[in-house]
Design brief:
mainly beta; about 45% strand; four-stranded antiparallel beta sheet; six-stranded antiparallel beta sheet
Length: about 190
Amino acid sequence: MKKNVNINMILLTIISSITLLIAVVGTTFVILTVINADNDDITALEVAIGTLGTEFIGGANINIQNIGPREEAWEVKTFSIHGSTDAEVYLVYNLSLIINENSFGSDNDRDNILEFSLTVDENSSNNGITLEPIQRMGIPRVGPVELGSGQFNGPITGSVVHTYHLSIYFPNRGFNQDEEQGKIFRARIQAQTK
């Protein structure tokens, strides 16, 4: 009996640690850029290294189900992109909304039942270029949705941050939308270097 309790405690500890690690740490990218300082024939290469990291409040996944039409957002996902480099390089990143499952509109083969918006947090660093804000627009049933590209300008002392808020809506369209209730939307935010 005591052996089963110890095994359960170890499994619970491992699962909790992995969940915490995924939710807090996010993903880190390394950027390698080749620099030819003299613009002459390349005889030696200098490699500059920078890092881009992501931090998601509550994880990168969006899971929505059993919702009804309303004007307020059903989910607001806040996430940050962190950049740092000692070199004179541009750290460019691309953000996408990857749709894993979207059963909204599937009975009538309609896109854009759900909508999203993207805003830039007012406390974001003014280093580089943030994504352009996106006013409410429809979410397709399938495929990725490109949110845009951002950039940090090196060299960077310490770390700089661009923070975003992605909101998901199920708006009232002025007609009966009962058939959409009980549907599922699963997606994740993806950050990639460019």
